[in-house]
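Running this now, will post back.
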Amino acid sequence: MARQPRLVLPDQPHHIIQRGNDNQIIFRDDEDYRRFLDWLRESAKFYHVAIHAYVLMPNHLHLLATPSDEAGLAAMMQKVGRLYVPWFNNKYGRSGTLFQGRFRTSVIDPDAWFLACIRYIELNPVRGQLVTAPLDYPWSSYAHHAGVRPDPLITDHVKYWALGNTPFQREAAYIELVEQGVPAQELDTINTAVVKGAPLGSHAFKVELEKT
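Update: finished.
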């Protein structure tokens, strides 16, 4: 049976999730996280994909990214995999696949869901009970958005910039947004969209996608 093609649109943000095969651990120590992020930064730059947010969890990862063309997103993920998986296998004396098939992605309506998706992504370690506060987790983009540590991987989206006229205003507004947490219905809606590969947005947004 043929695989359903992904919906990837240039210049639109996409929520991406990639899991370890059978939910196995894909990051075992700090060096693993750093290597993956280095290769992700190189690949994103090479394929002209803007990364707006990320979190690397022990057995999966989330990205919020905008590709400049239809092929860039898949090419970026494939290149990272071709670099990281052999390196990981050699380091730990293992063989075979590491990731669970193809990554999943959902096109995001930036007007309605962009900031909600960043919050969802960066609160993953708290929901997973790895930390009590998002700033305590070093492998996400939260410290960048909170103004604690600039991250060279991140390209700020216009929706983040719209939070305030100054860096301090933007950072304070974003911290307040994250402190509100993710409502259960919002959590379920984001999860469902990315798992199914469905667009996440208003009815009008989906109608425009169908036209496109």
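The first helix runs from residue 30 to 46. More later if anyone needs it.
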